[in-house]
Design goal:
By secondary structure, this protein is mainly beta. It has helices at 24-30, 141-147, 165-172, and strands spanning 8-21, 41-54, 69-75, 84-87, 92-98, 103-110, 119-124, 150-161. It binds ligand SLL. Residues 35, 77, 79-80, 98-102 line the site of ligand SLL.
Length: 174
């Protein structure tokens, strides 16, 4: 295997979350379930491509990251059952419901050909809209419903230095 020296190739990604308030109907349905009764939001945390046009109203592209990402592990708060969620194929995302914000650890493992070590990112799962008062308090439900879905995304770049020639071929064939 041959490394291509002095070459850097990067792939733009975005990671973060979208959150929606559960409908009245959903909250009614959850009311009788002790483990779901306090849940107020449905959220999706994801790693997506920033290289392609977004799909419909989704944040980030559905462009396949699988040619360089092998696995993404989302480590959720310990209040969730099986908090380590391992996703082995695109889309690399987890959808859950809950009531609270917390820090999600996102571990990105690359395909073997990349010979690159795991990349770890942290994302603060955001459920509550920023309010004009700037108060740290959780806004009341009716205020949050009016504000609409919450989006919290960050841009980053995965950088491959001196890539192996076979990996470079894999990356650039797409
Ligand atoms: C705290 N940062 O104040 C928060 C923790 C935990 C969030 C937030 C669902 C848990 C479940 C959920 O929203 N957990 O019902 O399974 O400590």
């Amino acid at each position: 295997r041959v490394r291509i020296r002095n070459l850097t190739i990067y792939r733009p990604i975005i990671y973060g979350n979208t959150a929606y308030i559960l409908s009245d109907k959903e909250r009614e349905k959850n009311a009788t379930n002790p483990s779901l009764k306090d849940h107020t939001h449905r959220w999706t945390v994801a790693v997506r491509s920033a290289a392609s046009a977004p799909d419909s109203d989704q944040v980030g592209g559905a462009d396949d990251l699988s040619h360089f990402i092998r696995r993404v592990t989302f480590k959720l708060h310990d209040t969730y059952p099986n908090p380590s969620r391992v996703i082995d194929k695109a889309p690399f995302e987890v959808t859950e419901t809950g009531w609270g914000e917390f820090e999600v650890q996102i571990r990105i493992q690359f395909v073997a050909e990349a010979a690159e070590k795991t990349m770890t990112l942290f994302h603060h799962l955001k459920l509550h809209p920023w309010t004009i008062t700037g108060e740290a308090e959780v806004p009341p439900l009716d205020v949050a419903i009016k504000a609409g879905p919450v989006h919290s995304w960050q841009y980053d770049e995965v950088v491959f230095n001196d890539p192996y020639s076979n990996f470079l071929t894999m990356l650039t064939q797409h």
